[in-house]
Specification:
By secondary structure, the chain is an alpha/beta fold. The chain is built from seven helices and seven strands.
Length: 236
């Protein structure tokens, strides 16, 4: 299926590995020109070398200035920004009553505010063209909280609430705001944790995000799409 994305411009954060990298590859395969962001400049350069047209902007997405710099890089190179995919590594483990204020604030900065800042920087340009796709990579924990991941549960669920609200604000302007909620995927991070069992493939997940950013997905808005192989058992 042609997703209608040829010539579009996307910003993808945490793109050096895992699900962010898979998403960047999936978008590029559809003819999207991509601004790649992560802290690991060498890994980004390696990825960019495999893509027909990409810009590397290394930096920490939790820095409040970086999201705007990524959008500016897209505008400088191509004069437009059509898609933003917000993504960041998960916070450390911890039970609900053991995490402290400093940890909670750090998690909120990385897994809520960084993505909100990216959307805020990009949306004015999307409004001008009356077309845009905002997609956040979160976690299945927004649909079914995971024990001992209290920080992730809190921050990512807050992002889900923001997504639902922003989707209503922007729907009439041709902009969709969605969230992809992955379960276990065979990424390096998962392998490092020694997790075993049934896992998804990052490439398949990337294609799901690409679809959410597609022309055909124009009426999919304000959802948290579970990509977890049926692991989440709740009905809502």
């Amino acid at each position: 299926m042609d997703l209608g994305l040829m010539g579009r411009v996307a910003v993808v954060t945490a793109a050096s590995k895992g699900l962010g990298r898979a998403t960047a590859l999936a978008l590029a395969a559809e003819g999207v020109r991509v601004v790649l962001n992560a802290r690991n400049a060498a890994a980004l350069d390696e990825l960019a070398g495999t893509l027909p047209d990409a810009v590397v902007v290394a930096g920490d997405i939790t820095d409040p200035l970086v999201p705007g710099q990524l959008v500016d890089a897209a505008l400088k190179r191509w004069g437009q920004v059509d898609i933003v995919v917000g993504n960041a590594g998960g916070p450390p483990t911890g039970s609900a009553l053991d995490v402290d204020d400093e940890q909670i604030l750090a998690a909120m900065n990385a897994n809520l505010l960084a993505s909100v800042r990216l959307a805020r920087a990009a949306v004015p340009h999307m409004r001008e063209q009356r077309w845009g796709r905002v997609c956040f990579i979160a976690s299945a924990s927004v649909r079914q909280p995971i024990r001992d991941l209290a920080l992730s549960n809190m921050a990512r669920t807050a992002l889900w609430a923001w997504t639902k609200t922003a989707a209503q604000d922007l729907a009439e302007q041709g902009i969709t705001v969605n969230l992809a909620a992955p379960g276990l995927h065979a990424t390096d991070r998962l392998l490092e944790r020694g997790v075993t069992g049934r896992t998804g493939q990052p490439a398949d997940f990337g294609q799901v995000v690409a679809f959410l950013c597609s022309e055909q997905a124009r009426f999919i808005n304000g959802i948290a799409l579970g990509v977890d192989g049926g692991a989440v058992t709740g009905l809502l």
